[in-house]
Fold:
Amino acid sequence: MSNNPRGFGTCHWLREAFLAVPREHFVPERVWWPARDAEGLYPLCDRRERPNAWLKAVYAPGAPLITQLDDGAVPPTGRAEGAFTSSISSAGVIIELLRHLAPEPGDRVLEIGTGTGYTTALLTHRAGADAVVTVEIDAALAERARDRLAALDLHPLVLAGDGERGYPAGAPYDRIVATASVRRIPPAWLEQLRPGGVLVAPLDSPFGHDLLVRLVGDGRGGARGRALERVEFMRVRGQRAPVPYEELGWPTEADPDHWQTLDIVVAPGRQRIFPATTPQPAA
Structure:
């Protein structure tokens, strides 16, 4: 695991945001638990049938809840199987995302992957509604998130569209965060990131898990940074197809035990991951 401190630490604003934003408000009444049962199916948590069990699942600190299977083809009517295509991330993972993102009040923030709208609400609590733009590829999910946010009098700009394209009309952004993983950092994100701006996103790796990376933009469509944590996220729809890691800039003999010592450099048309020459900086 990472040597970085985990949890809220001294990030008081994030603790306050978690206390101010009710997580259960954003969770659908029917969601799937992410571990298979004895018959190989994902159990359904139904608020109407078992409200206490549902609420306990919502606040389980280390577990995501699955809100969509197979891009919505599987209805939430009972135990099921299928590919996870949308979720509300575990509280622990969201803390890591936002602690490393470190938005300031008034920062222009772009979120890729609105999902339920819960992380959007936390960002809005910190940066302000006028400063937050969030993009969700599934129009039905975007509409539901917009309604859930509005019910709490939170009104960031919620858009239905392909998050890999970002939202150039709102650029440049001080912070960009993705809640779905990518194999290659989309060029649009770095084109829309101001010089010195921070991008936090899960990056697919050859190690059997994603790496949460923090990159600092150069203002010319490039960025550089390091991996911070081992995580697992659903892939953006446009990057689900496997690609040889060599084509994604990974070294041919990348060591899974030394993922923290890799530099990640992205420039227009190129992505490179290679052994770093300096120690990992403190988060």
Observations:
- The chain has two domains: 12-88, 91-275.
- The mean pLDDT is 94.
- The longest strand covers residues 193-204.
